[in-house]
Amino acid sequence: MTELTDLTLAEIRDGVARGGFSAREVAQAFNAAVEAGRPLNAYIVETPEKALEAADAADKARAAGDLKPLSGVPLGMKDLFCTEGVQTSAASRMLEGFTPTYESTVSAKLWQAGAGMLGKLNLDQFAMGSSNETSHFGNVVSPWKGKDGKELTPGGSSGGSSAAIAARLCPAATGTDTGGSIRQPAAFTGIAGIKPTYGRCSRWGVVAFASSLDQPGAMARTVRDNAILLEAMAGFDPKDATSLDLAVPQLEAGLSSSLKGKKVGIPKEYRPDGLNAEIAALWDRGVEWLKDAGADVVEVSLPHTRYALATYYIIAPAEASSNLARYDGVRYGLRDLPDGAGLQDMYAATRAAGFGDEVKRRILIGTYVLSAGFYDAYYTQACKVRTLIARDFAQAFEQCDVLLTPTAPSAAFALGEKKADPLEMYLNDVFTVPASLAGLPAMSVPGGLSSEGLPLGLQIIGRPLDEQGVLNAALALEERAGFAARPEKWW
Amino acid sequence: MSNSTYRIQGATGEWEVVIGLEVHAQVVSQAKLFSGAATAFGAEPNSQVSLVDAAMPGMLPVPNRECIRQAVRTGMAINAQINTWSRFDRKNYFYADLPQGYQISQLYHPLVGEGQIEITLDEKDPDSPVKTIGIERIHVEQDAGKLMHDQHPTRSYVDLNRSGVALMEIVSRPDMRSPAEAGAYLRKLRTILRYVGSCDGNMEEGSMRADVNVSVRKPGEPFGTRTETKNVNSVRFVMAAIEMEASRQVDVLESGGTIVQETRLFDPDKMETRSMRSKEDAHDYRYFPDPDLLPLELDDAFLEECRASLPELPDAKVKRYESELGLSAYNAAVLTAEAETARWFEQLLAAGARIQKKSEADVAKASANWLLSELYGALNRLGRGLDDSPVSPEQGAELLALIADGTISGTIAKQVFEIMLETGDAAGKIVEEKGLKQTSDTGAIEAAVAKILADNADKVEQYKGGKEALFGFFVGQTMKAMQGKANPQIVNELLKKALAN
């Protein structure tokens, strides 16, 4: 028999419903895997009792014939989602020990759907980072290893989520994506992850990084699991003014890998000089796979792509500098009050001690670009370019239904490799940031392995609200890529 | 527009004062601007604080429709442009009473644009000059919490009850030229806000506070450098702050100094303004559009509802009271100065017209006079206001109807009113029970007249000899004999007839 921890979310759900195994057995198996997986540092907080509690409720519900969509499914929760009674730290020292009295809308929806929580997953501090090395609780280690045996990054910021899923420490997990924080870690660890249209999932109760970009999403090994999880997470929330007041489509029921009559756009600007040859080759294979699924392929142009990264690294820090002002030591979280200190001294001491280097760097950048005299040159200009980038996509989608691109410019890199140079680190987001700026649904699916034996991902970007189109194209890729590689267990 | 003649006499000649006011008016609504927490004044510290108001991690603001509606109605009441597309911006600064680390306000695209308010320097003087004060904008923003420094020897406490409460910032043009004009503007603005019901105008509770911008110049010269005196909380203090600040500026300029653009504080104990911070230490607020909020777009139905819900406003009321009800300018001004007075008066009118089966115009003068003299006199004596008057408009109208139809005389009416104040009984009931009905029984009155004239033969002689002032004496004596209940008109007639013989 297959190990329970090797099952997909759909298989667990269906197995519990059929009675092939109990939800409690599943929870126990994953609780054990979480404990054994500690060397990966994927979880900041483990909540085995919560997983068991939900499992027992699922077993009872099955006996009563009252199963819910996620009954029996244990999940990992990115530690950016506020969870009532369970520490929510955003992987920061600032919020270490902070225990919310409230539950984020997304996590509350998942518990209502019958899911249980295995624990809170590690991430880059306040979701700022592409390698998971900015966490106050230490970096996550990818379960994957290259031929040289070096420890690799699981990507970021949802690196705890990606590592835990790849290592079978949970069947699926929540992520959040501001500039690629779901898609890049998914690509680095050989799993799938979807960032829906901005506004599909409520941001209420999610620790904010950059409000106009932040979007919760799903991460799991298969496209189907992503569809199931996203369907349970999404929906209008009157507590989030940017939430979309629209019905959630039945994403799992709508899955179809036939792309007959669909047009796939290939943006030429995503193939810069010097693009990694393996990435370029995988992209070409992706094109063939989608053609094989019945799609027509057209070249499209997104002329403002080259400005996207610069635009993102103005807008996101600007919003972050303001969003993180609330961490001041007055009401909750860390307070560093030196003897005889006044209010300003307390602010300075608290924020100096509570924030890591990358967070401070972005607060400084954000503060700078919003300052009098620089505001128009940076922030206003970036907002204008953002509009142009969104217009590029709108024009491209007049010629095609979805776009196919690589997810990241390379496979996972070694921990420490890019830590010294923030700019090099930021380049990791080059393919994911444009869709974030335009608020579009986008997904990464595993496409194959590099010559080093490391996973590579392909990205599908869709029209606003067309998560179904994105999932279906991703499903067509998944079926043809036949990605079955898994990291060898070394932990 | 009239030109103010207010001048400050300096050593180098006359100076003119230029004043602009930024009034922060707390919006009347059950809930805060972006959260569902309550807004009542005087509640236990930190008892009206939601997760949003305390800026807990992951909390998001959601605009409160009622607060927006109140600001739009206020804009309409000052004939201002309503911007159907506006946006909220974040004003970033650190302070312990500001949990988010930013105030959500509107810098770039306010909800309400240009409007104006007409002021009368002395509202009770019909000949007093009238002046139009421009309103630059009204925007909506969050209030901050409150720091308490007197609870602990070394620590400060924070009360977040006010954090997130909706304020309207009403920004005038620098159109005022004297403390009196500023006072008239504030009073008029307060009246309008109370009519509209968008702010209770209560300056003692901090529902209305003013930032006072003052500069001085030689008449005819361009504007001088201004200072801003923050958070002045009464009309009297605003007028005083202007006077103090203008004199200070004149002194500085005349002694060869220059005015520094700065923020100042008004100290009502010492009656002076003091520097708080200068432009050099001014905050860089790093305003930018709040990414948690979408732009605010108002549709026609919403605007229609706002407009339809506006009451008749004070200026229109004054005109109607004068032209349709025939009231004096003075009475019209006094009756409309407070929304509550006008409401009470109009209830009195409506009831009077109904009871007497006359038009409101027919009963207006008597109603206005009674309200302003009898009722106000009584309320003053009792230390009460119209809102807790022991006599209702309906009861007042009944009393006035009894006078109008001759059932009781004005003199008896005063007695009846006193009893009404004490017992709360209806006028008719009192008149009935105490037998105060006026008599028009000519026989009885004739008999009384005859007796009075017989008893005072000497006075009758003097009267007939030309001392006509004695007529009042005979009326008084007759009324006294009739215990005040005789119809005074009939008494007059019968006395004249008897004395003519």
TrEMBL record, chain A:
<protein>
    <recommendedName>
        <fullName>Glutamyl-tRNA(Gln) amidotransferase subunit A</fullName>
        <ecNumber>6.3.5.7</ecNumber>
    </recommendedName>
</protein>
<feature type="active site" description="Charge relay system">
    <location>
        <position position="157"/>
    </location>
</feature>
<dbReference type="InterPro" id="IPR004412">
    <property type="entry name" value="GatA"/>
</dbReference>
<feature type="domain" description="Amidase">
    <location>
        <begin position="29"/>
        <end position="471"/>
    </location>
</feature>
<keyword id="KW-0808">Transferase</keyword>
<dbReference type="GO" id="GO:0006412">
    <property type="term" value="P:translation"/>
</dbReference>
<dbReference type="GO" id="GO:0030956">
    <property type="term" value="C:glutamyl-tRNA(Gln) amidotransferase complex"/>
</dbReference>
<dbReference type="InterPro" id="IPR023631">
    <property type="entry name" value="Amidase_dom"/>
</dbReference>
<keyword id="KW-0436">Ligase</keyword>
<comment type="similarity">
    <text>Belongs to the amidase family. GatA subfamily.</text>
</comment>
<dbReference type="InterPro" id="IPR020556">
    <property type="entry name" value="Amidase_CS"/>
</dbReference>
<dbReference type="InterPro" id="IPR036928">
    <property type="entry name" value="AS_sf"/>
</dbReference>
<comment type="function">
    <text>Allows the formation of correctly charged Gln-tRNA(Gln) through the transamidation of misacylated Glu-tRNA(Gln) in organisms which lack glutaminyl-tRNA synthetase. The reaction takes place in the presence of glutamine and ATP through an activated gamma-phospho-Glu-tRNA(Gln).</text>
</comment>
<dbReference type="GO" id="GO:0005524">
    <property type="term" value="F:ATP binding"/>
</dbReference>
<feature type="active site" description="Charge relay system">
    <location>
        <position position="78"/>
    </location>
</feature>
<dbReference type="GO" id="GO:0016740">
    <property type="term" value="F:transferase activity"/>
</dbReference>
<dbReference type="Pfam" id="PF01425">
    <property type="entry name" value="Amidase"/>
</dbReference>
<keyword id="KW-0648">Protein biosynthesis</keyword>
<dbReference type="InterPro" id="IPR000120">
    <property type="entry name" value="Amidase"/>
</dbReference>
<dbReference type="GO" id="GO:0050567">
    <property type="term" value="F:glutaminyl-tRNA synthase (glutamine-hydrolyzing) activity"/>
</dbReference>
<comment type="subunit">
    <text>Heterotrimer of A, B and C subunits.</text>
</comment>
<feature type="active site" description="Acyl-ester intermediate">
    <location>
        <position position="181"/>
    </location>
</feature>
UniProtKB/TrEMBL annotation, chain B:
<comment type="subunit">
    <text>Heterotrimer of A, B and C subunits.</text>
</comment>
<dbReference type="Pfam" id="PF02934">
    <property type="entry name" value="GatB_N"/>
</dbReference>
<dbReference type="InterPro" id="IPR006075">
    <property type="entry name" value="Asn/Gln-tRNA_Trfase_suB/E_cat"/>
</dbReference>
<dbReference type="InterPro" id="IPR042114">
    <property type="entry name" value="GatB_C_1"/>
</dbReference>
<dbReference type="InterPro" id="IPR017958">
    <property type="entry name" value="Gln-tRNA_amidoTrfase_suB_CS"/>
</dbReference>
<dbReference type="InterPro" id="IPR014746">
    <property type="entry name" value="Gln_synth/guanido_kin_cat_dom"/>
</dbReference>
<dbReference type="GO" id="GO:0016740">
    <property type="term" value="F:transferase activity"/>
</dbReference>
<protein>
    <recommendedName>
        <fullName>Aspartyl/glutamyl-tRNA(Asn/Gln) amidotransferase subunit B</fullName>
        <ecNumber>6.3.5.-</ecNumber>
    </recommendedName>
</protein>
<keyword id="KW-0808">Transferase</keyword>
<dbReference type="Pfam" id="PF02637">
    <property type="entry name" value="GatB_Yqey"/>
</dbReference>
<dbReference type="GO" id="GO:0070681">
    <property type="term" value="P:glutaminyl-tRNAGln biosynthesis via transamidation"/>
</dbReference>
<keyword id="KW-0547">Nucleotide-binding</keyword>
<comment type="function">
    <text>Allows the formation of correctly charged Asn-tRNA(Asn) or Gln-tRNA(Gln) through the transamidation of misacylated Asp-tRNA(Asn) or Glu-tRNA(Gln) in organisms which lack either or both of asparaginyl-tRNA or glutaminyl-tRNA synthetases. The reaction takes place in the presence of glutamine and ATP through an activated phospho-Asp-tRNA(Asn) or phospho-Glu-tRNA(Gln).</text>
</comment>
<feature type="domain" description="Asn/Gln amidotransferase">
    <location>
        <begin position="343"/>
        <end position="499"/>
    </location>
</feature>
<dbReference type="InterPro" id="IPR018027">
    <property type="entry name" value="Asn/Gln_amidotransferase"/>
</dbReference>
<dbReference type="InterPro" id="IPR004413">
    <property type="entry name" value="GatB"/>
</dbReference>
<keyword id="KW-0067">ATP-binding</keyword>
<dbReference type="GO" id="GO:0005524">
    <property type="term" value="F:ATP binding"/>
</dbReference>
<keyword id="KW-0648">Protein biosynthesis</keyword>
<dbReference type="InterPro" id="IPR017959">
    <property type="entry name" value="Asn/Gln-tRNA_amidoTrfase_suB/E"/>
</dbReference>
<dbReference type="InterPro" id="IPR003789">
    <property type="entry name" value="Asn/Gln_tRNA_amidoTrase-B-like"/>
</dbReference>
<keyword id="KW-0436">Ligase</keyword>
